[in-house]
Each structure stands twice: as C-alpha cells, then as structure tokens.
Hints:
Elements: H1 4-30, H2 38-41, H3 49-65, E1 69-81, H4 85-88, H5 91-97, E2 107-120, E3 126-129, H6 131-134, E4 139-143, E5 149-151, E6 153-158, E7 163-167, E8 189-194, E9 202-213, E10 224-227, E11 239-241, E12 247-254, E13 265-269, H7 270-283, E14 289-290, E15 293-297, H8 300-306, E16 314-319, H9 324-328, E17 335-339, E18 342-343, H10 347-355, E19 362-369, E20 372-379, E21 381-382, E22 387-389, E23 395-397, E24 406-410, H11 413-418, E25 428-433, H12 438-442, E26 449-453, E27 456-457, H13 461-468, E28 477-483, E29 486-492
Antiparallel strand pairs: 1-2, 1-4, 2-3, 3-7, 4-5, 6-7, 8-9, 8-11, 9-10, 10-13, 11-12, 12-13, 14-21, 15-16, 16-17, 17-18, 17-19, 19-20, 22-23, 24-25, 25-26, 26-27, 26-28, 28-29
Amino acid sequence: MLSFNKRLNVVWIVVLLFIGAAVGLTISSRFDLINNGSATNRPTLKVSPALIEQSNALADIAAAVTPSVVNISTTKMVKQENPMYPFLEDPFFKRFFGEPGGGGGRYREFKERSLGSGVIVSRDGYIVTNNHVVEGASEIKVVLSDKSEYKGKVIGSDPRSDVAVIKIDAKNLPELTWGSSDELRAGEMVMAVGSPFGLSQSVTTGIISAVGRANVGITDYEDFIQTDAAINPGNSGGALINMRGQLVGINTAIFSRTGGYQGIGFAVPVKMVKQVMDSLIKTGKVVRGWLGVSVQDVSPQLAKQFGVESAEGALVGEVVKGSPAEKAGIKRGDVIVGVDGKKVEDSGHLRNMAASTKVGSRLKLDIIRDKNKMTVDVEVGEQPKDVQASQGGAETPETSSALTGVTVQDLTPELIDKLRLDKDVAGVVVITVEQGSAADEAGLARGDVILSINKKSVKNTKNYNAVVTKLKKEEPVLLLINRQGAALWMSIGPTD
C-alpha cells in the first residue's frame, strides 16, 4: 500500500500530464498542425444577394400563379376498325367463328383517356385550354390546386387556333391576370405551368426563343410564341407566364423527334386566345375577319418579277368572287405589303391580321401592282363557315359533300418528320375533322394523310380542293390514306 506522500506525487504527475496535453493541443491547433476535418479547409460559400433575390422572385411568382392552373382529364369513345374483320367475313372463318358480332364486328369501341391542363381566366369558372385537350370528350374532369374536382362543360372550341373554353360550376376562383403578348421579346424570361404526365402544379422556367412563329404546321392560324421552357405531354393548355406573373400564352405543342421535350415549345399568344375566347362566350362561334383572297409567300425570285424590294408581303393568287377583296378591286398578281401602315411579313401574317380585324371595319391595303405602289380601301367581311384551310393561307369555299368538315394542309418537311412518313409520300394531312360529320363517323382522324380521293391522286391542297369541289352531296367517297406509315382504304358515306 502506497504512503500518503507517494500517493500525492502520483496525483501531481497525472495533473501535469493533463496540463501538458492541453497546452500541446492549443499550440498545434494554432499552427494548423492538426487536421480538424475537411470543413476547416473548405472556403465559405458566398451567394450573391442578387441571385438569392432572383430565386425568391421566381418562387413568389410560382406560388402566385399555380393555383390558377388546373389539371384536366378527359374520356372519349374511340371507334377503331377491327383488323380481323376481313377474315371474319370469309366463309371459311364463319364456319368456325360464326357471324361477326359480339365484339367481332367491323368496328370496335373503347374508352380513351387523356390528360392536359387549363387556365382559370375568370372567378366564376371560365377556363381556357387547347381544343385538342377536350376535342371529342364525353367526360371532362377538372381538378383544382386544392384537389377539389369539378365536371367541365365545353362552352366552345376552335380547332383552327387550337383554343377551347370550358366552364365549371364554381365561384371565387383564383383567376390569372392577362398580360400582353405583343410586348414579348426574344430572350425574355418566362415560366411554364401545367401538368406534364399528370404531375399537376409543375413549374419550369426558360426564355422566349422567338415570337410570331408561323407555318409550323400545327394549326391554321399560327402566331406562336416559341420558348425553351420545358413543355411535355400533359402541359397542353397550361399557362406561359411572364415575370410580372401575367398570362402571355397557352402552351400548345412541342417540336420533338422523340415525343419528349427537346427545347422547342410553342404557345398561342394571349392576344389570339382572348379574341377567340370572347367570341366563343358571346356568340358560341369564332367570328373572324375575311378578305377573300388566296395568297402565298413572296420568294426572292417572285419579288424581282413583281417589283417588290424584298421577299416580304403576300402575293394574291386568287380572288373569291363577291368577296370584300373583289369589291375593293384587288386583282390576281397584286402583292399586299402593308395593312393600315403595318408591314406584311408573309401570307400567314396577312391572314392573322385580317382574321383579327372586326367585321365591318375598313382597312387600307398597301399593294404593288405591275411594279407600281398604290393603296386600296377594303371593308372586312365575316369569314364564311365553310372555308377550306390550305398551305400559305389560301382560303377556298368548300362545297357540301362527304368531306364537309374536313380541314387539310400541305405536307411540309417538318410534318413528314413529325408523322414519321417516308420522304417521298405526297398528299395532304388532315388537321381537323368536325365532330359528328360523315368523315368523323367513318373514322378519319387528325394526322391522317389523304393520298387519293375516288382513286384520283392528291398531291397538294390545290389538287385536293379541285377534286372536292366536284364531289356531289349524295356521292360516297373512297379514300386512300396513310396512317402512321400504313396505307388504308376508307369509304365515307354521303352527308344527310
């Protein structure tokens, strides 16, 4: 057993050891002799206050606008030809399978469901979306940001601009404020809000890539806003928002070789959307201005021939008899280069300018005739109901026949790629088919390419119009179409 003095010495030794260790640690840490972990070697992250402010601003805009964007789900009955039908008609197969019927008939029906988006534009339940989102739908379900569900009713739709208006029975809804699409500039930041792949309240950001995009081949009336903000399936009908939190466009389509987002999206500008919406709500139809001319773009070669300084303007090919243009003295070969002092860039631009003009208004057209400049005064008429759409803005009256209600357009290289067709395919692509028409009942659909009518080849819309105008009302029509790369014959009965 240790004596008291020895025990005291041991205690002092232990205390001195502790003191020495503490002093050593202090000195080594001061001279960075000990690695305290990677955190001490990592520089402090400095974030720009401006960047933080910008991020907060985007989040604030998203929080303000997302409650106004809804999810739309639709159900519609689709009729499809039974691929086994020809065999079921054969006596050999009838012997084993019996008469066609009980699901073995020529056509089969099934429910098709799709998803899209919409934008609340009034507190009492008006919602703007795309026509292709609700077209042919037998049921429309609208889901708000708070998960409440409503049954939607179509107030009106316009396939030619791909705009539709639906209504839900609700009050005090969070409406979006209208912005100005005319003031948009390339490079301006925007936000796309919608329900891609059914994922509601999704937000992406990007910039305006271009404005005034026409001749894309999506709709008859095109003045698209192009954006690189990510737009995917389900975003159709959603909102394109500026940095003031205002609605500037309705997201409509993407350009893609894969079916997914590739950096090019298109939105209908609100100027066109509001005009179509107001007309549908007030009159149940879209009232558009009409000049009554068939026009085409001016190429550099044509510009020289017709005495135009640059390849701009709209060259008149035909003047409809009795139209406002004929009454005003417009002639074939005139080049329309200005409307009320505003430059006409191309044929699509002229069409949009005329269509957006109030019926009964007077326009001053600047034209070049025989290389001489002159001004013509024209009173804008109302566009006839049966006006056939075609490439470059041509307007041709449509006769009543089995193809009444069918809208077509020339094939373009972009459409050939989009529809995955062989490059040598010649015909016209179906843009819209009026619901309930003979063509609709027969199964003709958007995206079908008409190759021949009654065994007469169809190369373009001019050729198509020439054949259609000769069809009689009671005459059945035999079509050869290309659908997703496959050639099909289709018989369309006469209209009632």
